[in-house]
C-alpha cells in the first residue's frame, strides 16, 4: 500500500481540493483508495458528506485506543473510493514539535488499512508541518506539496523545504514527490510569474508538470458534496487530475500495483 | 517585474535549490554538503571530506514502540525534548547576563553576511564561533534539535526546550572529562526515547570545554562527528582572525 500525504506550510493552497480529486482519480483507476481527513477543520467530510459532523473519524481513533479503523470508513458510490472523516476528537495540538505523540497510533491506523488491502491511502493534512501532520509525515511513503501560484506562495517555499528536511530526518524513507502549482490563473500576470519563478527556483524534478488552475467549479463541486470529476461540467478538470495521477505514479517508488 | 525579481528579492535562490536537491536525494541523511554557505565561498575546511551519514540503528522494527506516549502530564519532559524545533524560547534563568540576544538572532538567520556583521559586533571570539557553528549545525546536519553551552555553562543556543535536560547533559559531559571516562572521541550518547538520543560533544577551545547536544533519530557516524568538530574549529579560527 502507498501512503501519500498532501501537506503544506501555508493554509488555503488547495490541499483538500487536491486530496479529494486525486483520491477520486486513483479510485477511478481501479485502485482501492482511502482518503483520510487529518485536518481538524474536517474539510474533506464537509465537502463530501452531509453527515460529516456526526461521523467518528481520525481524531476519535487517535483518542480511543480500542477503536478500529473499520468503524470509521465511509463508503462512497464508487466502490473503490472510501473516506475517513476527521471526526470529533480533540487530539489536534497546536505548536508542538516535529512529533506530537500520536505517531504510534497513526502507525497502527496504517497497519489496519494495509490489512484491509487498500492500494492507496491519501492523508489530507492541516496546514503547517507540526503536531499530528508531522506524525502523518512520519508514517507516509510520499508527500506532495500544493503551492499556490501567487507571490506569497513562492516566498513561503524556503520554510516548507526546511520543514520537510526536518521531517526526512524523522522519516528517512519519506519520498518528496513534488510541489504542485495550484490556483494558477493564466490571465493574471502575477500568477504566471509566480509559477515561472517557482519552476526556475526548484529543480525540474521537484515541480510537477501538471498545474491545477483556479476554477469556480471547485466551489460548485464542494457545494454539492462531490469531487469535481463527478460533475457534468467537470470532464476537463477530471482530465487534469488524471494527468496528475499518471505523473505521480511515475514518481512513486515502489510503484503502486495496477 | 520578471520572475527572477519576484524570487530574489524575497529569498535566497541558492539556498532554496540546495534544500530542494537534498530533499530529492534518496538518503536524506547523507546530504550534508562537504562545505557550506555560512563560511562563504572561500571556505576550505571540509574540502575532500566525504559526506556525513548516520549509522543504522542496532534494531529496527516495523512497528517501533511509541517514543512519545499519548499526552499526559508524565510524558511532558520527553515531549519537550522533541518539541525542539519550536521557534519560541522559554524564559530561562540560565540565560541571565548572557550577551547573545543579538548572537542568538544571528544564529537563527543563516546568511553569510550575518557572520560578517557579528564579527564586527565586538563580541569575544568564542561566542561568535559558537554562533556561527550553531548556525551551520542547524542548517547542515540531520539533527532534530540542538543546544550549545559555552564553557561557563551559559546556553548559547537552545531549541531543545528543556533546561533540565541541558543541565544534566552538560554535567555528564563535564564529569566524563574530569573522571577521564568519556569515550576517546569525547562523545556521550544518551538515549532519551525509543528512537531518539542526544549526542553530547565536547568542543575544546582555549576558554574551556563548550558542550553541544544534538538530538538525533540515529547515531551519527564518527566521520560525521569529526566533520562537526572540524566545523567548530574552523568557526573558532575564523572568529579569532583579526580583521575578518
Describe this structure in words.
With 258 residues, chain A is α/β, with parallel strands linked by helices. Chain A has a single domain, classed as Rossmann fold. Chain A is built from 10 helices and 8 strands. In chain A, strands 3-4-2-5-1-6-7-8 form an 8-stranded mixed sheet, sandwiched between helices. With 244 residues, chain B is an alpha+beta fold. Chain B has a domain at 75-239: Beta-Lactamase (2-Layer Sandwich), CATH 3.30.450. Chain B has helices spanning 3-8, 13-24, 76-82, 101-108, 112-119, 125-140, 163-179, 222-239, and strands at 145-149, 155-158, 187-193, 196-205, 208-216. Chain B has a 5-stranded antiparallel sheet with strand order 2-1-5-4-3, with helices on both faces. The relative contact order of chain B is 0.16. Chain A binds chain B through residues 91, 93, 95-105, 107-108, 111, 130, 151, 154-155, 157-158, 161-162, 164-166, 168-170, 172, 174, 176, 193-194, 196-197, 200-203, 205-206, and chain B through 1-4, 6-7, 10-13, 15-17, 19-24, 27-29, 63-71, 75, 79, 82-86, 88, 142-145, 161, 216-217.
Short précis:
The complex is a heterodimer of chains A (258) and B (244). With 258 residues, chain A is of the alpha/beta class. Chain A has helices spanning 15-28, 43-48, 58-63, 103-115, 131-139, 151-155, 157-170, 189-201, 216-224, 235-251, and strands spanning 2-6, 33-37, 73-75, 81-84, 120-124, 142-148, 175-184, 207-213.
Amino acid at each position: 500500500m502507498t501512503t501519500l500525504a498532501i501537506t503544506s506550510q501555508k493554509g488555503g493552497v488547495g490541499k483538500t481540493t487536491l486530496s479529494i480529486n486525486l483520491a477520486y482519480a486513483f479510485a477511478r483507476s481501479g485502485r482501492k483508495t482511502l482518503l483520510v481527513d487529518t485536518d481538524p477543520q474536517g474539510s474533506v467530510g464537509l465537502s463530501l458528506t452531509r453527515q460529516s459532523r456526526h461521523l467518528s473519524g481520525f481524531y476519535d481513533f487517535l483518542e480511543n485506543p480500542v477503536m478500529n479503523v473499520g468503524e470509521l470508513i465511509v463508503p462512497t458510490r464508487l466502490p473503490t473510493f472510501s473516506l475517513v472523516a476527521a471526526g470529533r476528537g480533540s487530539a489536534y495540538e497546536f505548536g508542538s514539535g516535529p512529533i506530537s505523540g500520536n505517531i504510534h497510533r497513526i502507525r497502527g491506523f496504517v497497519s489496519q488499512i494495509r490489512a484491509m488491502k487498500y492500494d492507496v491511502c491519501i492523508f489530507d493534512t492541516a496546514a503547517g508541518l507540526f503536531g499530528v501532520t508531522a506524525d502523518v509525515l512520519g508514517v507516509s511513503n510520499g508527500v506532495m506539496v500544493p503551492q499556490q501560484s501567487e507571490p506569497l506562495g513562492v516566498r513561503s517555499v524556503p520554510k516548507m523545504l526546511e520543514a520537510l528536511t526536518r521531517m526526512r530526518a524523522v522519516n528517512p524513507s519519506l519520498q518528496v514527490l513534488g510541489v504542485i502549482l495550484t490556483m494558477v490563473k493564466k490571465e493574471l500576470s502575477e500568477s504566471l510569474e509566480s509559477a515561472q519563478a517557482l519552476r526556475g527556483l526548484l529543480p525540474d524534478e521537484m515541480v510537477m508538470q501538471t498545474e491545477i488552475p483556479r476554477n469556480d467549479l471547485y466551489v460548485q463541486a464542494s457545494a454539492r458534496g462531490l469531487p469535481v470529476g463527478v460533475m457534468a461540467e467537470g470532464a476537463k478538470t477530471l482530465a487534469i487530475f488524471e494527468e496528475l495521477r499518471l505523473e505521480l505514479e511515475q514518481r512513486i517508488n515502489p510503484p503502486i500495483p495496477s | 517585474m520578471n520572475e527572477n525579481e519576484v524570487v530574489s528579492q524575497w529569498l535566497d535562490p541558492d539556498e532554496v535549490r540546495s534544500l530542494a536537491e537534498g530533499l530529492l536525494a534518496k538518503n536524506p541523511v547523507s546530504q550534508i554538503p562537504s562545505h557550506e554557505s555560512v563560511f562563504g565561498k572561500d571556505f576550505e575546511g571540509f574540502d575532500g571530506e566525504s559526506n556525513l551519514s548516520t549509522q543504522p540503528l542496532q534494531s529496527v522494527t516495523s512497528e517501533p514502540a511509541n517514543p512519545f506516549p499519548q499526552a499526559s502530564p508524565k510524558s511532558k519532559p520527553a515531549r519537550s525534548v522533541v518539541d525542539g524545533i519550536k521557534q519560541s524560547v522559554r524564559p530561562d534563568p540560565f540565560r541571565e547576563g548572557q550577551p547573545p540576544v543579538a548572537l542568538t538572532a544571528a544564529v537563527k538567520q543563516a546568511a553569510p553576511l550575518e557572520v560578517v556583521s557579528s564579527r564586527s559586533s565586538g563580541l569575544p571570539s568564542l561566542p561568535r564561533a559558537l554562533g556561527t557553528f550553531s548556525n551551520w549545525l542547524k542548517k547542515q546536519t540531520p539533527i532534530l534539535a540542538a543546544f550549545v553551552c559555552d564553557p561557563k555553562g551559559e546556553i548559547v543556543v537552545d531549541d531543545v526546550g528543556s533546561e533540565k535536560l541541558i543541565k544534566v547533559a552538560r554535567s555528564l559531559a563535564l564529569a566524563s572529562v574530569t573522571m577521564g571516562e568519556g569515550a576517546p572521541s569525547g562523545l556521550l550518547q544518551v538515549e532519551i526515547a525509543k528512537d531518539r538520543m542526544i549526542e553530547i560533544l565536547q568542543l575544546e577551545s582555549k576558554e574551556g570545554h563548550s558542550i553541544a547536544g544534538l538530538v538525533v533519530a540515529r547515531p551519527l557516524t564518527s566521520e560525521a562527528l569529526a566533520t562537526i568538530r572540524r566545523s567548530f574549529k574552523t568557526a573558532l579560527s575564523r572568529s579569532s582572525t583579526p580583521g575578518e
